[in-house]
Amino acid sequence: MENYFNYFTEIEEQFRKCRSEPVLLSPLDWALIESWKDQSFPLAAVLVGIERAFEKFKNRKCTYRKVNTLAYCSQEVYRAVEESHSAAAQGGIAATPAHDQPAPFTAEEVSRFFHRCAAAVENAAHRANEQGRKVLTEELVESCAALQTLGASIPPIATAYLEELERNLTVLEEKLHASLLRGTPVEELARLRTEVDRGLAAYRRRMTAAEVDLLERQFLKNRLLEHYKIPRLSLFYM
């Protein structure tokens, strides 16, 4: 993927530039970007989709309204991605391989990141143990150990290595998410799901059921991690 580790920041900058006014993306906006990343949406196509959405918005009669959420751009983003896939299938220009690009992080920065993540998971394990959640405690301890192992010896950084490391982190985060889902009391999960449903209200009108379902699962995962004070296990969030 082109500009692999700039995916989030470039989309955020494009949204701000097209809006022409300062705006903070909401947690759901970030979850939407992550759903695009997880579906391997090309960055260039996403940027084109956002620009097209604002061009159409400017041609509307109701000029007093503003675009306050990235969800407004979702339909144009999907169209731009489909066009990108069609062009690639017809022999379009391929993106520059990520391994040909300079690494955006140093080994020391990556090592510090793993240390912070492992410490946060360890603290979450201590809290779970104090609350008598034995199974969750054991699984959090395992995740902490896995993070410590991954971060124990970081070699000289290359982008191709970082992508492999990111894939390992993705697997570990999914395992951690499953542990949190199993170990969280039903009442707390219900509260988080209610919060997610409320936040998705504005998105449902502009997205398909499948897209909303994907965003819902992504946002719930983010809220669970926040609840346990665990950072995202991804180099995108360094």
Can you describe this structure?
It is a single chain. This protein is an all-alpha fold. The protein has two domains: 4-96, no CATH class; 107-237. 67% of the residues lie in helices and 0% in strands. It contains ten helices and no strands. The chain has helices at residues 7-19, 27-38, 43-58, 74-89, 107-130, 134-150, 159-183, 186-199, 201-204, 209-227. Helix 1 packs parallel to helix 3, helix 2 (27-38) crosses helix 10 (209-227) and helix 6 runs antiparallel to helix 7. The chain starts with 6 loop residues before the first helix and ends in an 11-residue tail after the last helix. The relative contact order is 0.13. Mean pLDDT is 84; it is low at 93-99.
User: What is the alpha-carbon Rg in Å?
Assistant: 20 Å
State the helicity in percent bands: 55-70%
Name the helix and strand elements from N-terminus to C-terminus, one letter apiece: HHHHHHHHHH
Overall pLDDT, averaged?
84
Which descriptor suits the 3D outline?
globular
User: Strand fraction band?
Assistant: under 5%
Number of domains: 2
Low-confidence stretches: 93-99
